Every structure is written in C-alpha cells, then in structure tokens.
User: Fold these one by one.
Assistant:
Number 1:
Amino acid sequence: MSLSASPRLGPYTALALTALVAALASGRPELAALAVPFALFVAVALAGLAPPSIEGSLSLERDRVLEGESVRAIATLRGGAGLRVEVHLPVAGRVSARPESVVLWLPPDGRGEAEFELAVERWGVHPVGPPVVRARDRLGAFGIEGPLGEGRELRAYPGVGRLRRLVAPLRTRPVLGSQVSRERGEGIEFADLRPLMPGDRVRSINWRATSRRRVPYVNVQHPEQSADVVLFLDTFAEAEHAGEGTLDAAVQAAAALASAYLARRDRVGAVGFGAELRWLTPSAGTRQLYRIVDALLSSDARLSFAWRDVTHLPRGLLPPRALVLALSPLLDARGTGALLDLRARGYDLAVVEVSPLALTPADVAGAHRLPLRLWRLQRDALRARFEAVGVPVARWEHTRAPLELPFEEVIAYRRHARPAARV
Amino acid sequence: MAVALEAEPAGLVAGCAAAAVVLVSVALLTARTAPIPLALALLMGLYVLPEGERAVWAPLFGVGLLLCSELAYWSLESGVAQRVYGDVVTPRLVAVAGVAGASLPAAALVMLAAEADVGRSPALTAVAALALAGCAGLLFALVTARASGRSP
C-alpha cells in the first residue's frame, strides 16, 4: 500500500512559513499569530503515527449465480485501528456494485467489514475486485491506498428457458434413449408388419394380420434410441445494441437446448466457431450440462482476421450421425461457409438465425434505406442458399419472440421437406 | 466572513472578502482544492494589511481560518455518493477541534510575547530568524521521517 499526504499539508506549510517570515520582516506579530494554527496542524499531522498497513480479503456469498441475480460481496479489513477507511469495489462492465464505495471508521481492534451488493446483468465470467482501500488518519492528513487481497471471479450462468418440443435428429445411436428412431427394431412405437422370420418372438406376432392373411405376421417397432446433438455457436461476429446482442441470445438458446436434450438422455456437444475454435465432444449427463454452460461462459465475439478463409471444421470434431443445431446471426461469411461445408459432408443440420435485424436502426426513410434493403436482400439470398441444400433456416427475432418459435419452424420444415441426403 | 474589521478602506476589504468567497465557491463547485490556499492567503492579507485595531483578535481569526479551510477540504473529500457505516465524522471533528483549541492559546501567547517591552534589535531579529529556521528544520525532519516510513 502506498502512503500519501493530503493536498492541504503543502499549502498549510507554505502559508505558515510565509506568514512567519513576513511577521519577522514587517514586525507585525498578528501574522505570526495567524500562522500558528496552520503550523500546529502540520506539526501534529507529521508527529502522529503513520497509518498502519491494512490487510484483508474479499469474499463472495456465492461465486456462481444466474444472470439477473444479485450476490453479496464482503470485504473484511484487519489492522487499521482508528482509521477512517473508504473501500471501493471495482467490478467488470456488466456487473454493478451498490454502493460504489463504503466508508467506515475502524474500531480499536482494527477489524471491520464493508458489504456490497453485486447485480449481475449478463452471463459470463466477471472479475470482481480486489477492493481498493483508502485509509486516512484522524486529521485526514496522511493516508494509505492500495488493493486489499486478491480479486475473485463471479461466474454468471445464462437463464435457461424451457423448450417443450425439440428438433428430432434424423439419425440416432444404437443406445437406449428417448428419441423414436427411424430404424426398425424393438420398441414401443409401431412401425410396420412383416412376415414371421426365424428368431422372431411369438409375442410380436400380430394375430389380427395373421388371421386375415393366413400367414404369420409380426409387428415391427421403431426403437427408442438416443442421439448425438452438437450445438454450433457462430462467434465470428455479433450485433449488439443497448445491452442486447445476438451472442447473448445465442448463448441463452444454447444453454436451453443443452439442458433439454440432456434431459432426454441424448449426448450433447458444443462447438464455438469464431476467433478461436472451441469444442466439447458429445457426452450425456448433468455433468456435461455444467461443462457446456461453463464453455458457453467464455464465448465472446471478437473481430479476427487470423482465419480469413477457414470454413472447414476438422474432421473428427463432430460425430458422423450427429444433429448439428447452429445458432448464428449469419453475419460472417466464415461462419456460414463452415455450416454449408458441414451440410456438404452429410451432417443433419438446422440453422437458427439469431436475427440482427431488430438491432439495426429503424431508418426506413433516411440515407440508410437503400443499404439496409440491399443487406436484407443479401440475407434472404443466403437463407435461400441454405434451403436449396435442404437446411432449414429459422429466423429468431430474439427481442420479441420466444425461443420455441424458431424450433417449431424447423420442426415444421423437416416434417414437410425431406432434406437431401448429401450435397 | 464574520470578521469585522475597523479598517479604513472598507471597499477594498469588502472586495477582498468577496473574492475569497468566490474562490472557495469555485473550489467547491469544480471539486478542485487549488483555489482554497489562495482564499486563505487573501483573508490573511485582508486581516493584516490595513492598519488599525481589530474587533476580532488575530488568534481567533487564525483559528477561524483553519476551521473554514478544514471544512472546505472536508467537503471536497466527501463528495462521492457512498454508504457510511457508523459515525465517521465525530473522530475527525474532535481531532480538528483539538488542534484548533490548542492553537488558540499558542497564538495568544505569541501576541502576548509581542506586547513585551523589548526594543527591536538586530540580535533579537537574528534569534527570531534562527527560531524560524529551527521550525522549518523541525518540519523538514518530520516530513523526512514520515517519508522514510518511521514514526518520528
């Protein structure tokens, strides 16, 4: 901690010395009398003990919160008996601390606590602190200032919305799950009838069909299997306005999707494709949900020209039969190129366009009218390009529509249009 | 500006007093401490420059100046919106009042010593200059001790 003097000590000293010299030179004792209080103040301030160093630490009530929640932070102080202490807690941009600073007088035992309420406005990993302490002696003449202990990290998780219906994967894994497979085998959902074959169980004989056709027929079912789902997050670019952005919405949607698919015993993985390529191989269970959400917390859209032409995800990153659900604002050619490349490699792909249109200026009559119109036309053309290769693109106006809406659109598209097998 | 002066150029006194008030107001409005010492110097000069008897004694005027100055600096320090735990005002108020209270008899002693019937001589002036240099040296020693982190 650094020691500093009050800005008034210098002027007081100068005033006192000037007045004393002037008294001596002019023979006016009143000047000396006027100088005495200031000289005495400086002498008392200098003669007093220097403020002792203060130690302490910062603790958080919880280090994991949901966005929108508040958490208490307590700065504990030790060792500054009889000091007036001002504690300021620096926080990251999307966290606000109330109050900004706390003032307290440390009692003779030198122990005190300053309490702050941290309101987390956005998901992410937010650095908190370390608290900055300014302590002053009784006269306020000398002070010490410095950080108190170490800072903490506050992990704010995005709120997870509920999805009632999910996009069903075209292909499943031969592992028991909740997804009705397109394959035929043992299950609950009726699929078809076929003649009895050696090895068939007697209880699968369909007696009504058998009696009608006078040949033994058996029921064939769709088995309930699990699937691989990969959440593809395009983080090359984002549109943001007034604290609302496409990346925020995409992360919240990804968290909701991961939660819903994992609850159905599917394996879920995540790929963040942007300035950095990050991925989590698909896995099942609650632990995977925490892994995915933790990975989502570090998602950040950064401008990068490092990968100018990269539109290709490494082979082996995604399981071959996975359903790829892409959440993209469709703003960067590298992200859309990577999606088209995935489709060309035969992946079952659906794109949710986290629309940036609501975040653009409503300048329908001004100078931006024509560029905006051209830009919208370009986006329509891009959407048509995806649909031409059998990829549904559902536009999500995240500022006014619930998350379920684009997925209903994708489900409807997949019901009526059979995706092309391979481009 | 509760200082009543029986000075002859009343316009000059009022003008200086108004200037001091303006300087302190500027300091408080702009949250800068620089104008405060100027106001103090102006008020000191205001007291001393006109000849004549003073209705307010110099010790009392000096203490008043110190208290006004402390109040101005204090106002600038506590300008930030913040939460305050307990009574943080009283300890400092007591400390400043203690210094002010102690300086009142000290300044009165200076005035009494000045009233003593001793003729002005080069030797006495030299002694006073030495005492002044001693004061400055003491202050310097205290500052050095504080800067090196030792308690004096």
Number 2:
Amino acid sequence: MRALTWHGKHDVRVDTVDDPEIVNPRDAIIKITSTAICGSDLHLYDGYIPTMQAGDILGHEFMGEVVEVGTGSTLKKGQRVVVPFTIACGSCYHCGKQQYSACDNGNPADNQDIGQELYGQPMSGLFGYSHLTGGYAGGQAEYVRVPFSDVGPIVIPDGVDDDKVLFLSDILPTGWQAAENAQIEPGDTVAVWGCGPVGLFSVQSAFLMGAERVIAIDHFPHRLELAKKFGAETINFEETKTYEALMEMTGGIGPDVCIDAVGLEAHGLFVDNVIDQIKASTFLGTDRIHSIRQAIMACRKGGRISMPAVYGGFVDKFPLGAFMEKGLTLKTGQTNVQRYLPGLLTAIMEGKIDTTFLISHRLPLEQAPEGYKMFHDEQNEVTKIVLKPGLDRFAA
Amino acid sequence: MADERDDAPIATSKRSDKISEATNKLVEDRDDSLVGQSVTINRPAAELFAFWRNFTNLPQFMDNLVSVEVLDRRRSHWVVKAPAGKTVEWDAHITDEREGEMIAWASADDADISNSGRVDFRDAGARGSVVTLTILYDPPAGLIGKVAAKLFQREPAIQARRELRRFKQFMETGEVATAARNQRQLEEETN
C-alpha cells in the first residue's frame, strides 16, 4: 500500500510499504477514506518529539471502511467508522474510569519502558505518534491496522459525509475535553490561546457549556475571523498586549478560565520565547511555553486553567509562584476520545456542532508531503488539510 | 536518628548491603541478585494464580519462553530462547505454594542459569490483584552470560517488568499488545 512516512526533520515521503494484516484477535483493518494532518503532526515534522524512527507511518486522525476483522472484533465488514487516536483496551482500571488515554494496555510492553523512564509511568498507545506511545503505524495511508477495534471505533450512519464526522477522531473531542476540564460555570469569561482546530472547537464547546464570553487569542487574522464567527471576541497578539487587554476586557479581574491550545511550539517574538527557542535548538530544554506562562499570569485568582496543548519535555521559568499564590487549578492530558464519541456524534447529527468549516484543503494522499509543507508554512489560510487516498492527483 | 528500615520493599533499597543481607537470609550466599516487581491486574487473584500455576500457559505472554513441560505436581522443564536460534533448558521444582496466593520455585542444582523466586497474588479490592514477582539469580558470566543477557535483556528488573506487563495485558484484554503491522513483523519482534 501507499503511506506517508517520516524520515527526519521536514522530510516526509509517500512510500510503498507492506499492507497491514490482522495480528491480534480484537484487530480490524480499515480502508482509509479520509485522514487529516493534525497540528501535533507538525511537532513531529519539526522534529520536537523524541523516539521517532525513519519509515514510521504518521497520521492519527482518520476514518474509513472496515475491510477485515479478527475473531474478537465487534465490527462488520463494510461498516464506516471513525477511529479514536488513543488506543485503549476497554478492560483495565483506567478504561473502567473512562480515562481511556491512560489505558494500561494500549502500549506494547517493551515500548512502555521509555515513558516509564521519562514520565514515571508509561503512556498509553497512540496511532502514528512516535515509539513513546507504542510505535503504531498511523492512518495517513491506504489501510491501517486498528487494535482493540471492539472498543475504539464508532460506527457512522449511512449517508453522513466524511467531512462532518472525521474530526471525532481527535480535535473535536480534544476541544470538548478542554472546555470540560475547565469546569465552565454559567456567566464565565473564557480566554483561549490559539485558534487552531482545537482552540476553535474549545470556543464552540465553551459556549455550549454556558460560557458568557469567550476571548480568542491568535496572530493569524483568518483564524481569528473563524473564532469571531462562533461568537468569540478576539485579540491579535501581534497588534495588542495580551495580558493588558485581557485585564481591561474583564474589568481588572482576569478571565475565569484560561485554555492553552497552543503548546510546545508557541510562536511570537517575546523574550521568554526567544530564550526557549535557543534552549530548544541546543537541547537545554525542549518546549517553548510562552502561552501557558501568559495564561497563568492572566487567569483570575482562584481560576481554572485547561491545557489541551501538547508538551513533551521540560520547561523552565514556569510561574509556579503565581500559580500557587493565586490558587489556580490546572487540568490537562491526552484526550479520552472514546468517552465523548457517542455524545459528540449526536451533537453533529443534530446540527449543534459544525466541523466542516475548518477544512480548507482536500488533497490526494500522494500529495501529503506538499500538504505538510503548506500546513507548516501558511497557517493563516491553511486551517485543516484532509487527505483522501481515493482522490486522483490534482483533483482537489 | 530515623530507623534505618522503612516500609518499602527491600528490592527498592538504595543500599546493596541491605539487599545482600536480606537475600542471604533466604538462600546460601552466592552473590545472587534480587529483582522485585509488582503490577496491578484488574482480575481476581484466584484466576491469576490458576493461570500462572499451569506453567504451560506462560509462553503465551513470556516472549523468551519457548515451552514449559510439567513433569509432575512439583517438577517442570523450562526451555528458553538463546542467541543464534539456540535454546537453553533447565529443570525447576516448586519449593512452596499456597493455593490462590503464592508459588515459589528453584532451579535444579545443575541448571545453566541458576534461579529461584516466588510470585505472589494479593487481593486489591476494586483494583483487582497485585502480582509481585521476585527473582533471585546468579550474576551471569561467560557463555551463560550471553544467554542471560538475552533472557533478562541485560537488566533483570526491566525484563521482569515487561513480563508482568504482558501478563497483565493477556489477562485483562485476552491478547498481548503489539504495534506489528502484520504477521511477518510480529515474528521479527518476538524472535
């Protein structure tokens, strides 16, 4: 089959690789019909995530048609499914608490060593996201092997377009969980750093959960426009002093809730960010954390911070004093996708949540490397690229 | 002065003299190394004990184990993978056991890799059971060292941890998780 493979920093290629097969009883093989490039794929593309190996197949946002099932799968050939990016067994203690992204068993035993050393306990398995999270082949390919297929994939009713449901795989539940983690109360003012897909879905989710105001922060005018369409007020941090603006816009209180949807590659010319970049390039530190610092400083006393943004390693100049003295609460984590799928599918079917606005480009799988470059270089216009393995070249 | 013993398992001690002292109480002083690892498994202790006690089940999740032949109620024969497609074999016998709770074993005196240990199964309420594997083995040397390096992947504690994770996966999910994309990759991984 054809698949998008990683070979190094800014080097991804479409190669011919071995087809996947049923390996374990609960497996299914999915023929991919749509698969997106995620903002977090850019962290891999930029070489920020350790334990990548040449030839790894990327992609963790995908859906398609069931073409083969193992004896323990509950799926049927021909069904259309969206597959969560988190690989969860459904039977361990954490899955029992619906903490699917903390599943004990999704990650192969040998791969768990790295996470245990780095983080104290091993990570669960994710598709196409380094060997830290299992080394599973991802879905930017013609076919993918899906383990524990009786637990993860959600069956999509006939007649519902791929574009409407594809983002159930990651970014919609991630934006939703970000808002849920912030424990939004009616009347709250919510500030969201980053108007990428997760930030924009956080904006929608926050309003659905009763937020009175949402203030969205970015530097791409087009992305701020999208946030505005969902009712958010906006701050362009290249034009405006973010902290000062947030304080003024909230009558000197600060937002009740701050959501960091930016993460380890925060952009912008700020002193701390420049130092972080130098440290990252010399391996003294790995993460640029300007957005979370600013969120902690801006958040009102006793407020709540939610951090769907991806961080991988160590940071410094973390304002722990402000965090403690103001009595803030921080919730974060990879998304427990399986927990949110039925409810979010219903919300989509009832028209309460729209996800199709996000898609700016549709490309054939063969053009995936161009897609990565575009997504990386032109973040204003390119909000989301969906790869269609069935699409002819240049048909987009 | 604080008491020098705390409540932590002896295998986690920073002081090698304390570990030696403890192990020497259990076996003759042969400079054995002690490995101790625990895992919590979301299944009843009785079920886990019964599965483990039937030693022929163990190769289903222990990657380096080719086969275990049960010779009688107490004795068994173990075949383990070694480098270059070879195998190493030994006899072991059960030295102690308590139904549903504990199995202790020791290898026969002439075993290539002398080892003994015990596996405990303790009820952990809503979380299932805590399984603790404790192994004492001779530090490897020479040819046997190479075999042991494969067997224990250089670091016995890591190897024990991996075997327990696979045991947990098998008992909780019915299969051992793998990222192999097809049968060929799976065979490469397990050989």
